[in-house]
TrEMBL record:
Organism (species): Escherichia coli
Keywords from the named record: NAD, Oxidoreductase
Name of the protein described by the UniProt record: Mannitol-1-phosphate 5-dehydrogenase
Span of domain Mannitol dehydrogenase C-terminal: 31-208
DNA-binding recorded as keyword: no
Recorded superkingdom: Bacteria
InterPro entries found in the cross-reference section: 6-PGluconate_DH-like_C_sf (IPR008927), 6PGD_dom2 (IPR013328), Mannitol_DH_C (IPR013118)
Length: 209
């Protein structure tokens, strides 16, 4: 049996009456959404991008992919970009968030976890939707006029995801073949087809072919 040392236990302290409990490993907050988005924008975003770029590069596992320096640079960069949104939106401490990113990268490197890139990459239509791990942080960078070039690389990688065992991957491929990458991405993500950010993603997508 493989045991993973990474864990998070975030608790909404507004749900307690009277004295707050002091339990080892429990982190109390009065803004649970901030920590929900921190996980989505960091762990989930990084995991997906590692999978998509890893599969494109021919890697089998998340560990193999994150040990590829080119992929690692994009994944780390994307988490830093999404992190800048969190810092701006919720006031997270920049140094603590940088340490959190390193913790996530360490999780991806865990040699005891046989995390298959194809399994992690499944359901690309859901992961490219407006409220999920790729587009939602991108929208945050647009809201605050922040850099997003690495998130764009992750989105382009997701558009390339193919798997015979995943109906969403097949639907994605058919949609791109039918409508082209620009219209397909706009339909899936809710982004404006004529926006600069969709153009950036399509350019990155074509560069990966």
């Amino acid at each position: 049996m493989t045991v993973e040392t990474f864990s998070e236990w975030i608790v909404d302290k507004t749900q307690f009456k009277g004295a707050l409990p002091n339990i080892p490993g429990m982190e109390l907050t009065d803004n649970l959404m901030a920590f929900v988005e921190r996980k989505l924008f960091t762990l989930n975003t990084g995991h997906a991008i590692t999978a998509y770029l890893g599969k494109l590069a021919g890697h089998q596992t998340i560990r193999d992919a994150i040990l590829d320096e080119k992929i690692r640079a994009v994944v780390k960069g994307a988490m830093e970009e999404s992190g800048a949104v969190l810092i701006k939106r919720y006031g997270f401490d920049a140094d603590k968030h940088a340490a959190y990113i390193q913790k996530i990268l360490g999780r991806f490197e865990n040699p005891y976890l046989k995390d298959d890139v194809e399994r992690v990459g499944r359901q690309p239509l859901r992961k490219l939707s407006a409220g999920d791990r790729l587009i939602k942080p991108l929208l945050g960078t647009l809201e605050y006029s922040l850099p997003h070039k690495n998130l764009i690389q992750g989105i382009a990688g997701a558009m390339h995801f193919r798997s015979e065992d995943d109906p969403q991957a097949q639907e994605l491929a058919a949609l791109i073949a039918d409508k082209g990458p620009q219209a397909a991405l706009a339909q899936i993500s809710g982004l404006d087809a004529n926006s600069e950010v969709v153009s950036e993603a399509v350019t990155a997508y074509k560069a990966m072919q």
